[in-house]
Amino acid sequence: MANVIHSKNSLSIQLKQQIVKQIFFLLGFPVLIFIGLILLKVLFGNQTLFLFGVFAGIFIWGILNAKQYTKIKIIYAGLQGEKNTNRLLGSLPESYAVLSDITIEVEGKRSQIDHIVVGPTGVYVIETKNLNGSIVGSESDHQLVQHKIGRRGGEYSKSFYNPVKQVGTHVYRLATYLKKYSLDTWVQGIVYFSNPDAEVNVNSEKIPVFCFEEGPNQIIRYVMDQEAETLSVEKTKRIVDLLSKLTL
Predict the structure, then answer these.
(1) Position with higher pLDDT, 134 vs 12
(2) Are 183 and 232 within 8 A, CB to CB?
(3) How many domains does the chain have?
(4) Which residue ranges does the record assign to the NERD domain (predicted)?
């Protein structure tokens, strides 16, 4: 089994922080609204103004809670995708290391990388998306399109930034970062849609796009079958040691 190294600044921590915020908005914010309404009543004594404050407070409370809940859903979905991918990549041989949720800073700009695989066949940057529905597009598109069926059976679509382009940026920054420490090596990007309910039709020649539907082991075979560059045990260890410092 591969050595899976988790970042301490992981999505699980972000999820806990977001849940705390949700609890505050759910319980604490109404208290602040109540205090504000009492002050409004005492200072102005206007019933109409008081009722307006009540409805305005409830409206704001509802919007803030909805936003916080949406953030929790997004982070939770990302966390599930990360866990599923970690479990999959962990099935690589023990000569490989998998680093999750790594932030690289190059030229004053940051890349938050979902997964980095380092092993005998090279270095791989993997961008994971835990989206369902039909995903369509190509590597040249700025955005991909997700087609879904809603809870009531209606169809709708939404666009999101093309992960092929996103992982291309990650590849450049990681390669530049490694070169800075005299660890020049080819870095290969990969996009993986981990949701079993995703049907992916994305054309990409330079950066392979895999999905759970086509068989999760495809990504494992791709990593192990590459022969573009073979990393020595020493160089692999140096790269893993360097990147492991970014998980602290």
Answers:
(1) 134
(2) no
(3) 1
(4) 77-197
Q: For the segment 98-139, what is each residue's pLDDT rounded down to a tens digit?
A: 999 899 999 999 999 999 999 999 999 999 998 889 999 999
Question: Measured between alpha carbons, how far is 14 from 192 in angstroms, rounded to an integer?
Answer: 22
The half-sphere exposure of 97 on its side-chain side, counting CA atoms within 13 A, is 17
Per the CB < 8 A criterion, the answer to whether 183 and 201 are in contact is no
CA 93 vs CA 22, 37, 104: distances in Å: 41, 63, 26
Quick check: is 115 in a domain? yes
Q: What pLDDT was estimated at residue 76?
A: 72
In-domain check, residue 48: no
**Separation of alpha carbons 27 and 20, rounded Å:** 11
Q: Are 226 and 219 in contact (CB under 8 A)?
A: no
Total-model pTM: 0.77
Which neighbouring-strand residues pair with 133?
Answer: 198
Tell me, yes or no, whether 200 lies in a domain.
yes
Residue 102 domain boundaries: 94-247
Single-letter amino acid code for the residue at 49: L
